[in-house]
Design goal:
The structure holds two protein chains of two kinds.
Chain A: E1 4-7, E2 10-14, E3 19-25, E4 31-37, E5 43-50, E6 55-58, E7 61-66, E8 71-76, E9 85-93, E10 96-99, E11 103-108
Parallel strand pairs in A: 2-11
Antiparallel strand pairs in A: 1-3, 3-8, 4-5, 4-9, 6-7, 7-8, 9-10, 9-11
Chain B: E1 4-7, E2 10-13, E3 19-25, E4 31-37, E5 43-49, E6 54-56, E7 64-67, E8 75-78, E9 87-94, E10 104-105, E11 109-113
Parallel strand pairs in B: 2-11
Antiparallel strand pairs in B: 1-3, 3-8, 4-5, 4-9, 5-6, 7-8, 9-10, 9-11
The chains are: A mainly beta, B mainly beta.
Chain lengths: 109, 114
């Protein structure tokens, strides 16, 4: 069954603006990961946040995790045209990964 | 050097045929996966496999079978292809400890059934 749901489904912003996308999930998790998928390519791992962490940073990326609300957010600051891609959250339940349907981000130069 | 490579990149075939997709990883990872991504970009795990255990998603038809000749390869065989099998299939790998380590994906095989 589908585990993660990203919101919004699509997001369009101007270059330089910040982009925030959210992920909600249904059951307890060990960790949550965010991935990026450029058009016609495979997924690329961005960041992993463990269930006992609340916030994590990596360059222009900031991820938060609220296990009480079963939700996570990915913030991309100072967006660039190259950030245009789909972004997926992935959660681990047992030993299987579950991905959402992704947020399609378009950054307009 | 490509870390996870899949062949072919595109596969167009007739309904009822049998086909295989190959996957190789040069990362020395212990675990490999196959995913199916549909037209709405929903990504679903099909199999995860290491040299000890094959985990099958129970919703995957038994027409799909993974075959691993060695730790670096996990091929996907599909028998009696159906229209609904049209999708993009991704191979991925990770270090041992499923879920703790990030997954590395290939660029996908676009399967179209006529």
């Amino acid at each position: 069954s589908q585990q993660g749901e990203e919101d919004p489904q699509a997001l369009s912003i101007q270059e330089g603006e910040n982009a925030t996308m959210n992920c909600s999930y249904k059951t307890s998790i060990n960790n949550l990961q965010w991935y990026r998928q450029n058009s016609g390519r495979g997924l690329v791992h961005l960041i992993l946040i463990r269930s006992n962490e609340r916030e994590k940073h990596s360059g222009r990326l900031r991820v938060t995790l609220d296990t009480s609300k079963k939700s996570s957010s990915l913030l991309i600051t100072a967006s660039r045209a190259a950030d245009t891609a789909s972004y997926f959250c992935a959660t681990l339940r047992g030993n299987q990964f579950y991905f959402g349907t992704g947020t399609s981000l378009t950054v307009i130069p | 050097d490509t870390a996870v490579s899949q062949t072919p990149k595109y596969l167009v075939t007739q309904m009822g045929n049998d086909k295989s997709i190959k996957c190789e990883q040069n990362l020395g990872h212990d675990t490999m996966y196959w995913y199916k991504q549909d037209s709405k970009k929903f990504l679903k795990i099909m199999f995860s496999y290491n040299n000890k255990e094959l985990i099958i998603n129970e919703t995957v038809p038994n027409r799909f079978s993974p075959k691993s000749p060695d730790k670096a390869h996990l091929n996907l065989h599909i028998n009696s292809l159906e229209l609904g099998d049209s999708a993009v299939y991704f191979c991925a790998s990770s270090q041992a400890g499923t879920g703790v380590q990030p997954q590395h994906f290939g660029d996908g095989t676009r399967l179209s059934i006529l």
